[in-house]
Amino acid sequence: MKNDWDFLSIYTITDKLFNSDSKIEFIVRSRNPSIPYTNLTVFNEDGVEIFEFELVDDFKLIKTPENTFKLITTGFYNNNKLDYKVYSLSGTLDASQETLLNKNIIQYPNPTSKTCI
Q1: Please, are residues 65 and 74 in contact by the beta-carbon 8 Å criterion?
Q2: Most CB atoms closer than 10 Å: which of 28, 38, 59, 81?
Q3: pTM score, two decimals?
């Protein structure tokens, strides 16, 4: 993470999604207070930077029908126009990691025993 950037959060903790070694890897979202965008940086458990996605507003991890993974980022790259970038990820997830990443925490509507008329 760059020195003048603030830590915001950690996402996508895996062990073989971004590379093939067995070290834990994770995405850190950071922000420079002087610009409105964030960076995503993939680190391994030793703090070694694997990759940096610069000027990202949001991202989604997608599993394709071919059982490969893509990381799609959105950001304002070209003259403040929304831009999408798609990255193919070389790694895999084991079944428990995939289940964890696919869980929905918020589920609605909230079931009720009352009937609406």
Answers
A1: no
A2: 38
A3: 0.75
Find the distance separating the first CA and the last CA of the chain, reported in whole Å.
Answer: 56
**Cα dihedral 99, 106, 61, 12 sign:** negative
For residues 78, 79, 84, 88, the Cα torsion angle rounded to the nearest 10 degrees is: 20
Cβ of 41: how many Cβ atoms within 10 Å? Answer: 19
State the DSSP string of 55-86.
EESEEEEEE-TTS-EEEEEEEEEETTEEEEEE
Q: Cα separation of 44 and 12, whole Å? A: 12
